[in-house]
Design goal:
Layout: E1 4-7, E2 18-21, H1 32-37, H2 44-62, H3 64-87, E3 93-94, E4 98-99, E5 103-108, E6 116-125, E7 131-140, E8 147-152, E9 162-166, E10 172-174, E11 176-180, E12 183-189, H4 192-200, E13 203-209, E14 215-221, H5 225-231, H6 237-270, H7 277-281
Parallel strand pairs: 3-14
Antiparallel strand pairs: 1-2, 4-6, 5-6, 6-7, 7-8, 8-12, 9-10, 9-13, 11-12, 13-14
């Protein structure tokens, strides 16, 4: 899964526990759909000026007054496209993701009296191998409270925070705690009720608002996999790293295959170039 173990402050008292977070995906990968819709809206605007000159000459010979009315009627038409564009960004964005399995492992700091911290986490990424969403339950040894930390890429509207939903249970909302180069983190208290819902649930859905104001919905499948990982023994960190490397290599192979397909499609499209041979034959 290629998670990174970082350190960052989460509570005013005590230092932060280690956290699991995925490498960030740039905001450009999350907002192109909303940006692509905006240029299409101004297209109706040019049609309004074209209709104005035609209406003016016809009305001018008989009654100049109607000619003055024509622009007034067209003005609302010109004002309509901005209203349409304002409605486009809120469209919910859903991204096809490839998921790593829920994995649990425990680590201990190098300090003399360091406490053990256990993590149970999962991430989702696109075919290129770049992570888009990560969720991890952090359990510091000797502390009563557990944390569910979700990590999203940079480029989100921080003021809205994040929201999580487990199946049909009531949603929970939390602010962003801190941002690093790998993304922005939001923390939830992993109560016994939340963990129980995750054990018997099907999906942990994470929602946020991107820089264009569009809602972003990112599901993380739970099924029975989460319960097995959470209640089971921790994975050896070395084995975890090896599995992460294997997954990354597989994703890189897929990305290369995609590139070759695109290059092949581009080459096929370039074959019409032999057309200039006809003038030469003449």
């Amino acid at each position: 899964m290629n998670f990174r173990i970082l350190a960052a402050p989460v509570r005013p008292h005590g230092r932060i526990v280690a956290l699991m977070a995925a490498t960030a995906l740039s905001a450009a990968l999350l907002v192109p759909a909303a940006q692509a819709q905006q240029p299409a809206a101004p297209a109706p605007a040019p049609t309004a000026p074209k209709a104005a000159p035609k209406a003016a000459p016809k009305a001018a010979p008989k009654a100049p007054a109607p000619a003055a009315q024509a622009p007034a009627q067209q003005a609302p038409a010109a004002g309509q496209p901005p209203a349409a564009t304002a409605q486009q960004p809120p469209q919910d964005q859903q991204i096809q993701l490839i998921y790593a399995p829920w994995t649990k492992f425990c680590l201990k700091g190098q300090e003399a009296n360091a406490k053990q911290v256990c993590f149970t986490g999962k991430d989702g990424r696109i075919e290129s191998g770049q992570p888009v969403i990560a969720a991890v339950i952090i359990e510091p040894e000797g502390e009563p409270k557990k944390i569910l930390r979700v990590t999203l890429p940079l480029g989100m509207q921080l003021v809205h925070g994040t929201r999580i939903i487990v199946d049909g249970n009531p949603p929970q909302q939390a602010p962003y705690v801190i941002c690093f180069q790998n993304g922005c983190m939001s923390d939830y208290e992993a109560t016994p009720e939340l963990i129980a819902n995750m054990k018997k649930g099907q999906n942990l859905v994470v929602q946020a608002i991107n820089s264009n104001g569009a809602p972003l919905t990112l599901p993380l499948p739970l099924n029975t996999e989460f319960a097995k990982a959470y209640d089971g023994p921790p994975t050896d960190p070395k084995v975890f790293e090896e599995n992460s490397k294997k997954l990354q290599e597989e994703l890189q192979k897929r990305a290369e295959e995609q590139r070759k397909k695109l290059e092949g499609a581009g080459g096929a499209g370039a074959t019409p170039a032999p057309a200039p041979a006809n003038p030469a034959s003449k």
